[in-house]
Amino acid sequence: MTEPSRLSQQEIPAPLQAAPFALIFLLFFLIPLGLTLMVSFWDYNEYQILPAFTVRSYVEIFSGCLAKLPDLCVTFKTYLSTLKFCVIVWLATLIIGFFVAYFLAFHVRSLTMQITLFLVCTIPFWTSNIIRTISWIPLLGRNGLLNAALLKLGIIHAPIEWLIFSNFSVILSLVQLYTLFMIVPVFNSMMRIDRSLLEAAYDAGASGWQTLWNVIIPLSKPGLVIGSIFVVTIVMGDFVTVGVMGGQQIASIGKVINTQMNALQFPPAAANSVVLLIAVLLIISAMTRLVDIRREL
Amino acid sequence: MRSGRSPAFYWLAALFAAFVLFLYGPMITIVILSFQGPEGGLTFPMNGVSLHWFSKLWQGLGVVDIWAAFGRSLRLGAVVMVLTVVLWLADGLAYRKRFPGSDLLFYVVVASLIVPSIVVSLGIGLEFRLFDDTVKSLADSLGWSWLADTYTTAMGLYTSALAAHLTWTLPFGLLIMFAIFNRFDRRYEEAARDLGATPWKSFAHVVLPIIGPSVIGIGLFGFTLSWDEAARSSQAIGDLNTLPLELQGLTTTVTNPAIYALGTVTTGVSFVVIFASLGLIQFLRRRQARHGSDAGQGLT
User: Fold this and answer.
1) Number of structural domains chain B divides into
2) Residue B151, exposed/middle/buried by CB under 10 A (0-12, 13-18, 19+)?
3) Domain range for residue B127?
4) A38 found inside a domain
């Protein structure tokens, strides 16, 4: 053994063991966030960023937003559009995720089968999101499988245009990509429910629906909240899926930031990031009031 | 109560099947379409079956050197995997003992998972740009022309992109770790200590074998998350793109089934890694059971 004997005799102190991990998050998460905040108050011209304090970027983001009311300014419209995706995708993943997890946790009886089916749900998560997104094109495109089938059956006479590169395809793709983020925490919560509670509910005369509503859903709440946080924050910041599935025509906050970054307009991109972060944190803080994340793992 | 299937079972089973079809259907479609004949297009019908588009892919797609990106992604994924496992193990051991700031660290790590990727990406991008500017102006003011003339940027695959990937893989590792160590029976370690094992020995011979399958799982997570990562590295990548970033650009420029062939190949890599890891986990479990050790019992 090449290990020095002193090391093998003595336990390494915990803070030292955690230090590299903590350092990564200090260097590549906390400091970058701080810098983003700082740069969002800097000035810029076409060539470079100028380290002088100004609220110019924020003024530009919200310029005309109050004056134009009740008409919405570009920023509000973009947020509204992103929020709309958020709510729809959240509801869809919540419902699908809950019932899939419920099926796995309570209706599949053998552990091996549970693990197998759980893996079946998980495996696509480990493959490329972009590939999974463009995979919809041959199915939903103008000459895609669905349009071709409907035309052949005589149900429609012209291809449906809104199946792809539309709000619909963005939502479909987001639901497909992120339902797993709901399934895993909800399944985890459900597996911790004491099965004797269900027997007790049954003995007390509760119907299946009553048990579901009064026992299982309240006890799955932590998982539902954690899953919701994941889904909402991912959709709020998304720009890849909205870009590809929206045919680069649909606005989202993430896309605005991405475009500004590519144009090397760092202060406005940073200011937009700060605003986005505040919006996300407000949503999360509302949700975490409901549950202590750490106790649920 | 538990005998016989309720009608609800069949409804839920149907829902589950539909969900699985929803998950896999599109993926299967592009795998099939990637074998499209040379005259075939982006949609059905299949115009013959061939490997034409794979050979096109093999020759490269236009201006983008796809195979260089492929190699970069593979190497970066491997580095991320190793670092994720090592950092995670050290941190996991620390968390079992509680230490000052452990709660704070936990919340910071979870926060990094739920702060939108584009914001993290922008932050890391800015950090490296500001660093570059600082180095350049410092070199100028000190008159170090050797540095001022040669230095371009610290941004790159194994600096900024690696950092961006770690802020994505490590939080997942931490969450999984809590799930594992919360279920870990510490009596095995106490027994080892009572028998005179040093901390290092009890880690190597008791803890590691028990959590071994989970360690492989974390490694798998680390690799596949990195292999497919686009959002976090988008602004923190420097000159040379990873495969998912190239792919993102190709979705708008390539209009033939070669892009499906590329999809089939990257999905294939993911599947090979996933099934190799699952196989290895199975093998370790079996070996534990076969050797009559009671080590594996801690997990069940």
Assistant:
1) 1
2) middle
3) 65-299
4) no
